[in-house]
Write a structure and sequence with these properties.
With 123 residues, this protein is α/β, with parallel strands linked by helices. It is 37% helix and 22% strand. It has a 6-stranded mixed sheet with strand order 2-1-3-4-5-6, with helices on both faces. Strand 1, helix 1 and strand 2 form a beta-alpha-beta unit. The two termini are 16 Å apart. The model has no long low-confidence stretch (mean pLDDT 91).
């Protein structure tokens, strides 16, 4: 499974995830300033799951109908420190190996997952 860290995804968490073997590209490194629609389009075309702190992606996916078949993980965590956020991100990504077709919201005490692909359709 491959991921794309949004521009707002914290560098320390991204580096720690990479050190643990996760395959993650980062918007800040290869396409800074990209608009959200382009970020989602890249995720779809490259089959990447988006890691973000930007709740606007929920609006784009659910209200405007932009495709996100490859998945979005939205972190809504008020972490006490960068290392605490990193621990949370590591635990979440280790918890399963397939985030495709799911919009996930991570909070301090729970993970909510909503399927993005309607039953009977294929990505």
């Amino acid at each position: 499974m491959k991921f794309l860290g949004d521009e707002n995804f914290p560098r320390p968490a991204l580096q720690a995830l990479r050190e643990q073997g996760f395959d993650i590209a980062w918007v800040s490194e290869d396409s800074p300033g990209s608009i959200d629609e382009d970020v989602l389009a890249r995720c779809t075309s490259e089959k990447l799951t988006l890691l973000t702190l930007d709740k606007d992606f929920g609006e784009l996916v659910f209200h405007r109908g932009l495709p996100a078949e490859c998945g979005v993980i939205l972190f809504r965590v008020d972490a006490e420190s960068p290392s605490h956020f990193t621990e949370i991100a590591l635990a979440v990504l280790r918890s399963r190996d397939d985030w495709s077709g799911i919009f996930t919201v991570v909070t301090r005490d729970r993970i909510r997952m909503t399927p993005l692909i309607r039953p009977g359709t294929r990505p």
